Amino acid sequence: MTTTEDLEVACPRCGATSTMRFYGPCSACRGELRATLGNEGRLAEAVDYEPKMNVTPNAVALKD
Question: What percent of the chain has pLDDT over 70?
Fold first, then answer.
């Protein structure tokens, strides 16, 4: 059963009671966490696959 009602819960971070839809930090704590810990997203470059040097080829493939 799903409900869309707001719940009155205690903030796990500061302990203040507030009305929220989901359990988690209150809006004041969320704002503080975003300001202190949040950062912009960045793009990561994909690294090409390079096989290990200790891998040996199959003996059947080397057979002439």
Answer: 78
